[in-house]
Amino acid sequence: MNSSWIRFLPGFILKRIEDRHELLEVLDNSGWMMGDKIFRQLVGLLVGVWLARYLGPQLFGDYSYAIAMVMIVSPMATLALDGIAIRQMVQDPASRDQVLGTSFLLMLGGGVIAFGLAMTSIFWARPEDRLVQWLVGIMAAGTIVQAFIAIEFWFESQMQWKFTVFAKTSAFLLLSLVKIGLILLQAPLVAFAWAALADTATGSVGLIIVYRFRGYSIKSWRFSRTMVNKLLRDCWPLFLSTLLTMIYLRIDQVMIGNMIGSGELGNYSVAVRISEVWYFIPIVICSSVFPAVVKAEALSETLYYAHLQRLYRLMAFLSYAVAVPVAFFSNEIIQVLFSSAYKDAGPLLAILVWTGLFTSLGAARNVFIVSKNWTRVNLLSIALGCGLNIVLNFILIPEYGAMGAVGATFISYWFAVHGTCFLFKSLRKTGWMLTKAILYPKVW
Fold it and tell me: Are residues 354 and 348 in contact, defined by beta-carbon separation less than 8 angstroms?
């Protein structure tokens, strides 16, 4: 504990936890994860705001379009292997080299497929736009390079988050400084795509160095056909869920870029960036309370649902606490952060920020779904929400522009999280609990 951030906690807290070694280990790793997320969000927001001001709505729209296109295909590069690979190594640490070697090659192959899909898509969607083709091609190359995140799986399985945080955050900070330098040098847009690729590559190099420093070698990794079958058999539902979620989150930006142009996409993208900046908080809270909810289920059904209702009401309260002031001051927030060039983003942000209510309630609902192991219901909910989002975008964007995409996002988020509860009998009680939380939010 002496080498951990925990030693800086107040003395009365340290006395209560100093003999609880398992709890100390969990707190240590949770602290590293939380610190990494907060640091990345703050630095990413600052650099992103500066970059948006430098590029202006048109070029920032091109940049956002390329990122969205790559993010949609990115699940192909990871195959949602992380949880399955980590579980395997927790259960059998001796399988490390087989798991890492097999995961690396699977993700390398997936990265090549993702790159091919990205390039095929961009040449089909924008056959004459050489700039955006270059942006997508450069950024999509990162899906191949990132196969080395397999190293993260080992450290996470050993609850040693600080090593991966150090490696990847160092690369992130370095490349954030590079981006600032590029802005000061008034570099062309394509330079920032190269910086994004360098960020991924540098993070991979950092992971290799840390892995070697801890006494391991990637030369000992082994490919196993048996492990391929095991990993792919277990990961495919998670992969489908991740793929649908990514399409759900980013298809609106691709559709705006294709249907009405990059200028309006630039305004929409800055509104999305601000509305999403706090989303890590509900995820961290829900991850933290998950063990308590599972224990409550084992003790009493009444206690179990009481815990869930409190969680739902807390998520609603946090959402309102963010949405109300942001909605009222959306124009001022956009003007101060992004300048008057993005003034059209203010009204978009005023409505888009309310989608956070269903994002946070969705994170809380997942606590219930995962505790019941109803992953198929969750997958169906995401698929229905994704399909509705695409249909509404096709209908609303031509008529209302970016505001149409905002409306499509709000309606489809509500439907996926709250509306679908009334379609599935197993979720009907949850639907009424969410309704109660929306109408009567509470801190705890």
Answer: no
104 in Cβ contact with 146 (< 8 Å): no
Packing angle of the helix pair 402-417, 345-352 (nearest 10 deg): 10
Quickly tell me which residue has 């040098």 as its tokens: 185
DSSP, residue by residue, 198-257: HHHHHHHHHHHHHHHHTT--GGG----HHHHHHHHHHHHHHHHHHHHHHHHHHHHHHHHH
CA angle 317, 318, 322 (to 5 degrees): 115
| Domain residue spans of the chain | 17-259, 261-444
Which residue from 62, 196, 71 is spatially nearest to 126, judged by alpha carbons? 62
Give the helix/strand (H/E) hosting 109: helix 96-125
Per-residue confidence at 444, pLDDT binned at 50, 70, 90? low
For residues 408-413, average pLDDT: 95
Q: Give me the phi and psi of 69, to 5 degrees please.
A: -60, -45
- Measured at the CA of 117, the angle between CA 111 and CA 118, to 5 degrees, comes to 90
Q: What are phi and psi of 356, to 5 degrees?
A: -60, -25
Residue 10: partners with Cβ closer than 8 Å, 6 or more residues away: none
User: Are 443 and 315 contacting, i.e. CB atoms less than 8 angstroms apart?
Assistant: no
- The average pLDDT across 14-27 equals 53
Pick the closest to residue 251 from 47, 439, 387, 104 (CA basis): 387
* Alpha-helix residue ranges (DSSP H) falling in 373-427: 375-400, 402-417
∠ CA 87-90-95 to the nearest 5 degrees?
95
Q: Distance (Å, rounded) from C-alpha 270 to C-alpha 331?
A: 12
**193 CB neighbour count, 10 Å cutoff:** 25
pTM of the predicted protein model: 0.86
Q: With contact defined as beta carbons under 8 Å apart, do 48 and 179 qualify? A: no
Chain position carrying tokens 């420093």:
213
In angstroms, the CA 353 to CA 338 distance is: 17
Q: Is the pLDDT of residue 275 over 50?
A: yes
For residues 215 and 198, give the distance between their C-alpha atoms in angstroms, rounded to a whole number: 26
C-alpha span between 352 and 342 (Å, rounded): 15
CB 167 within 8 A of CB 207: yes
Interior/surface letters 239-251, b for 16+ CB within 10 angstroms, e for the rest: bbbbbbbbbbbbb
